[in-house]
Design goal:
By secondary structure, the protein is mainly β. Helix content is about 0%, strand content about 50%. β14 and β15 form a beta hairpin.
Length: about 290
């Protein structure tokens, strides 16, 4: 356990359970400084909850890893709180050819660590890590490979008060990604918009699929926005898949600037959010409590 994120101590606390905090994100689980630090008594911040997000399909979620890829991003975490993550990775045979060796790089933060492992074709590896930050993959084979991913990511989420609870809403298509058609020459088509006020942590999985009746899948630029001003702009290659976890997710947009074919953005969103039930029904987002 990373005590700097979980025992709830102020930065200069001298008790044995604490180490100086590495950074000052808004929703780090901290106890206010006026509460005394009691030696030998690690404490739990009442504002801190835990939740879990998962990546999986029927069994594995398939990520096509293109031939010659050296640093293809599969997952990126833009959140701040502590997490423990169980990863099960397999080199799958789903492209009509033999499964190929795939070199996986797992990066963690706080502590910063890089794990590099090659998964032979048709083989499986499992890892458990703290503070997962990213997963990237290299494929030196002459054909495309497929990385199968099962991820269970358990993380801290802190709400604004003891009365707050958490819940999770999911956009999916019954264990598959939900389909959003995208017309040709489309710019900034809104897929999702959040009009709520409370804090959230959200796992977003997107794939550029092939729309029925169209001759091919096409690359689709997407834009992810958060309330803090973070803007993530990436292009999802044709038949490519990416996953992200962000804080205070606000919107997801997709574009299809070409005229080659209609696109299809396949989406799975798991949105875990704070909700308080103290009788305040105000919809004014300036009220940080509710």
């Amino acid at each position: 356990m990373n005590s700097s994120l979980n025992c709830g101590c102020e930065e200069n606390c001298s008790c044995s359970c604490c180490t100086p905090l590495k950074y000052k994100a808004r929703d780090i689980c901290q106890i206010p400084q006026e509460k005394p630090c009691i030696p030998g008594s690690p404490r739990k911040d009442d504002d801190c909850r835990i939740a879990r997000h998962t990546i999986q399909g029927g069994t594995f979620r398939s990520f096509i890893i293109f031939s010659g890829a050296t640093n293809q991003v599969v997952f990126e975490d833009y959140t701040s709180n502590h997490n423990k993550t169980l990863l099960t990775l397999r080199s799958l045979d789903t492209t009509g050819s033999a499964a190929v060796p795939l070199t996986v790089t797992i990066t963690t933060r706080n502590p910063k660590k890089t794990i590099i492992e090659t998964i032979p074709g048709a083989r499986t590896r499992s890892f458990q890590v703290e503070n997962l930050e990213s997963i990237t993959v290299a494929n030196s084979a002459a054909i495309n490979g497929t990385l199968g991913v099962i991820m269970q990511k358990t993380f801290c989420i802190s709400c604004s008060g003891q009365a707050d609870q958490i819940d999770t809403h999911t956009i999916n298509g019954s264990e598959t990604l939900l389909e959003f058609p995208v017309s040709t020459r489309t710019t900034d088509q809104v897929v999702f918009q959040d009009y709520t006020c409370n804090h959230n942590k959200t796992l977003i999985q997107v794939r550029s699929g092939q729309l029925a009746g169209e001759p091919t899948a096409v690359p689709l630029p997407i834009e992810i926005n958060t309330r803090s001003g973070l803007e993530i702009n990436v292009e999802i290659p044709a038949l490519g898949t990416r996953a992200f976890q962000v804080e205070d997710f606000e919107s997801l947009k997709v574009s299809n600037p070409g005229g080659e074919a209609f696109g299809q953005l396949n989406v799975l969103i798991q949105k875990t959010f704070c909700i308080c039930c103290d009788g305040n029904t105000s919809l004014d987002c300036r009220n940080k409590r509710c």
